[in-house]
């Protein structure tokens, strides 16, 4: 339950904080980059310990929670402000969602997270549970690569030159993947503790990998 709560929180907070651009070592990134990669780390933990089916349910749960958050924030912004409140413009600037960016974010999240979980589950079976570090980093390279490529392409294609899209995709991909690699000791710690505490270590040998939460 704790892992699920952190996973969902990471996604929702990342979308809210992404509106702010920050400068880090000469690179311009959205502030959501600080926390969004954590969703992949906890997604790896869910898949490694509880299997693809459990991770798939949580991925869709987080999607619905994020959709609820966006809906409530948008509804609140559309309601007429009280005469004594002067923060409407600031509210819309910070919490207003551009439909195209929102759609790009949702699609990229689902594809990236599900691909990350799928690859990790398959690699776990192929390696018979060995080399967790290689499985978490390998699955992240695939998931974050798809996430970055889909989001940047859907969000900005046609508005900036194609030649500029590739560097943005590569920068996001490398930074987020490096984040995951650096967090490998933390992933080991949590995974090993959960496996010992709960006596669970699922191998997805007979699992349906249908991306919809309907498979066995």
UniProtKB/TrEMBL annotation:
Transmembrane intervals: 28-46, 58-81, 101-121
Localisation: Cell membrane
Keyword Transferase attached: no
Main subcellular location of this protein, as a coarse class: membrane
GO CC term, one of those recorded: plasma membrane
Top-rank taxon: Bacteria
GO molecular function: transmembrane transporter activity
Record keywords: Cell membrane, Membrane, Transmembrane, Transmembrane helix, Transport
Mode of membrane association: Multi-pass membrane protein
InterPro entries in alphabetical order: YhhQ (IPR003744)
NCBIfam families assigned: queuosine precursor transporter (TIGR00697)
Family assignment from sequence similarity: Belongs to the vitamin uptake transporter (VUT/ECF) (TC 2.A.88) family. Q precursor transporter subfamily.
Function statement: Involved in the import of queuosine (Q) precursors, required for Q precursor salvage.
The protein, known as: Probable queuosine precursor transporter
Organism encoding this protein: Rubrobacter marinus
């Amino acid at each position: 339950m704790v892992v699920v709560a952190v996973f969902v929180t990471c996604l929702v907070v990342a979308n809210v904080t992404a509106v702010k651009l920050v400068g880090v070592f000469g690179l311009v990134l959205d502030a959501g980059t600080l926390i969004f990669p954590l969703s992949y780390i906890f997604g790896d933990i869910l898949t490694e310990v509880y299997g693809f089916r459990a991770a798939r349910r949580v991925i869709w749960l987080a999607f619905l929670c994020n959709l609820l958050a966006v809906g409530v924030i948008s509804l609140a912004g559309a309601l007429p402000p009280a005469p004594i409140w002067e923060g409407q413009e600031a509210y819309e600037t910070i919490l207003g969602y551009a439909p195209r960016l929102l759609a790009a974010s949702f699609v990229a999240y689902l594809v990236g997270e599900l691909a990350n979980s799928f690859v990790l589950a398959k690699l776990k079976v192929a390696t018979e549970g060995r080399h967790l570090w290689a499985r978490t980093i390998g699955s992240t390279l695939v998931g974050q690569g798809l996430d970055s490529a889909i989001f940047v392409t859907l969000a900005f294609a046609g508005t900036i030159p194609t030649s500029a899209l590739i560097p943005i995709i590569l920068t996001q991909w490398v930074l987020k993947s490096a984040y995951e690699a650096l967090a490998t000791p933390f992933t080991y710690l949590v995974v090993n503790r959960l496996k010992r505490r709960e006596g669970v270590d699922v191998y997805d040998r007979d699992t349906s990998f249908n991306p919809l939460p309907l498979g066995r």
